[in-house]
Every structure is written in C-alpha cells, then in structure tokens.
TrEMBL record:
Positions in coiled-coil regions: 38-65
Family statement: Belongs to the PhoU family.
UniProt source species: Dysosmobacter acutus
Database matches in PANTHER family: PHOSPHATE-SPECIFIC TRANSPORT SYSTEM ACCESSORY PROTEIN PHOU (PTHR42930:SF3)
Domain of life (superkingdom): Bacteria
Taxonomic lineage: Bacteria, Bacillati, Bacillota, Clostridia, Eubacteriales
Protein's recorded name: Phosphate-specific transport system accessory protein PhoU
Chain's role: Plays a role in the regulation of phosphate uptake.
Length: 214
C-alpha cells in the first residue's frame, strides 16, 4: 500500500514540474510577445494558460485520490495540502501571464523597451517560479527561503519601472496611455512574484509544519 502511495506522490511531483514549466512558458511567451510585438507569442501564452487550467484540475483530482484512498499520515497530509495550495497560485500565475499577453495588442514597446526593466522583471519571476516548484520536488528548504528573498528584488524592479514610466510620460505626455498599460504589465509581474513566494512558503510548511506567516 505504501509503495503505491509513494508512486502516486512521485506522480504528483512530476505533474507539478509540468505545471511549473507551463507557467514559465506562459510568462516567457507573454513577456517576449510584449517586448517584440509578436502576436503569435501572445497566442502561445494564452494557450499555455489553458493547459495550466487543465493541469490544475488533473493535480487536484490526484490529490483528492491520495487523501481519500491512501489514508496519509500527518507529514503526507502537509505535502498534499501544500500541493493543493501551490496549484491555486500557479493557476493565478497563468491568468496573469494571459493578462500580459492580452495587453500586447495595445502596447508598442519599440520606443520604450530600451529604457524599461520589464524584461528583467519577467526573467526574475520565471526564476522564482522555477525555484519554488523545484524546492517542493527536492524538499529543499533553503531554496524555498531563497525564493522569498528574491521577491524583494522583484519589488525593487517594480518600483524602478514605475520611476521609468514617470520619466517616460514626463518627457512625452502623448505616451500616457502606453505608460498606464506598461504599469499594469509590471503590476502583473509583481503579482506573479508574490504567487511564487506563496508557493515557496507552502513548501516550507510542507517540510517543517510551520507556515512563515503563521
């Protein structure tokens, strides 16, 4: 019985890795679509978001089977409950990547991209998502805590983008609408960083039994 349970836990890890990879794909495609004005990449980000939704339902079903059929002990319960929380955050990450992709049709980055740190924000959040999922799979508490520290860098980049947008609009008031759209993009990326932090905090709970914010 335990052998079957361990196999299902391993499947849970595999499915979480796949969902995490889809999140990375969605963020990367959305950010590149925005920076390059590539509508095909915007559509790819939207397609990835649909796959993320499907993966969330599949993992949720697997977790329910583990809870109902295998009678997990306390440590296993923490792992499964943490996975359920994590996929909720990953689903939101997919939503926000899709929101960024949706803005692609309204934003022309040609005149602004060299002065903005949005690309840096996207790369930082992708790294946070990757590391948060890896910390769960590898039971790596130090990596989970490092993700939480990285969120401060994303927050600092968000403030930098805000300053850059203020300068952009001050120099040319006709770029006001562009500035507002890009501020929304930066806010979506900042929220993705928050969701990656949430994932890492649930990893800490699964390993220690204590949530950092409790």
């Amino acid at each position: 019985m335990r052998s079957k349970f361990d196999q299902q836990l391993e499947l849970l890890n595999v499915e979480l890795i796949r969902m995490g990879a889809l999140c990375e794909e969605a963020i990367s495609a959305a950010a590149k679509a925005l920076l390059d004005g590539d509508e095909a990449l915007a559509e790819a980000a939207k397609a990835a978001e649909q796959e993320i939704d499907d993966k969330e339902r599949a993992i949720e079903s697997l977790c329910m089977k583990l809870l109902l059929q295998q009678q997990p002990v306390a440590r296993d319960l923490r792992v499964i409950s943490s996975a359920l929380k994590m996929i909720s955050d990953m689903e939101r990450i997919g939503d926000q990547a899709e929101d960024i992709a949706e803005l692609t049709r309204y934003v022309n980055m040609v005149s602004a991209s060299s002065r903005l740190h949005i690309g840096d924000m996207a790369r930082a959040t992708i790294s946070m998502v990757t590391d948060s999922v890896d910390s769960f799979v590898h039971k790596d508490l130090s990596l989970a805590r490092a993700v939480c520290d990285e969120d401060d860098k994303v927050d600092a980049l968000f403030l930098e983008v805000k300053r850059e947008l203020i300068d952009l609009i001050s120099a040319d008031s006709s770029k006001g609408e562009l500035g507002l759209d890009l501020l929304m993009v930066a806010k979506y990326l900042e929220r993705i960083g928050d969701h990656a932090t949430n994932i890492a905090e649930w990893v800490e709970y699964s390993l220690t039994g204590t949530h950092p914010k409790s």
